Protein: Secretory carrier-associated membrane protein
Organism: Glycine max
Amino acid sequence: MAGRYDSNPFDEEEVNPFSNPGSVPAATNSRLPPLKPEPVDYNYGFGATVDIPLDSSMDLKKKEKELQAKETELRKREQEVRRKEEAASRAGIVLEEKNWPPFFPIIHHDIANEIPIHLQKLQYVAFTTLLGLVLCLFWNVIAVTAAWIKGEGVKIWFLAIIYFIAGVPGAYVLWYRPLYRAFRNESALKFGWFFLFYLLHIGFCILAAVAPPIVFKGKSLTYVYFIYVLYLTC
């Protein structure tokens, strides 16, 4: 019985690889050849590097400095304008922005927002009077031009032009704008100025309506007299 279990099945059999040199194949060099070194390229094959000249970078810095200087100057001007506006508002000075007529603004005119409601009707009447004066003086230029063509002489045409050039801005400056500012600021001085020059305006309108023969026989002013003369000559 003991002979059957003399050998241990878990024992490892010792084998000497050098005992039979012909049975073990010779070792071969199995290492792979090393890769060739390649230059590092960060453009990923999309072209060569671009050299930026130093002159262009200096020009950019110079332009940047110029823009910063201009920006600083504009900021200073803006602050100066704002300071003047604040000083004017504290002093009670109203900065008038030209807004009339809308297609070519030459004067400031805003009755609806600047004139009190109970005075707006009177201001609109005064404005209509001013527009009527402009229309009448323009019609006077047309009528006197027709008379000049008929042989009345060029002097009356020059007088009609003077009436129009001086009458329209004169009426606005002397009586309409003082009335506008008087209604807006309730200034007694402006009211006095308005009444004085509006009386002169009424006198000129009466003179133009009658057109007496005292200045170039009244032919430089049309209206009633000139229409009557045309009626007699036709």
Summary: Residues 117-232 form one domain. The CA atoms of residues 41 and 48 lie 9 Å apart. DSSP finds six helices and no strands in the chain.
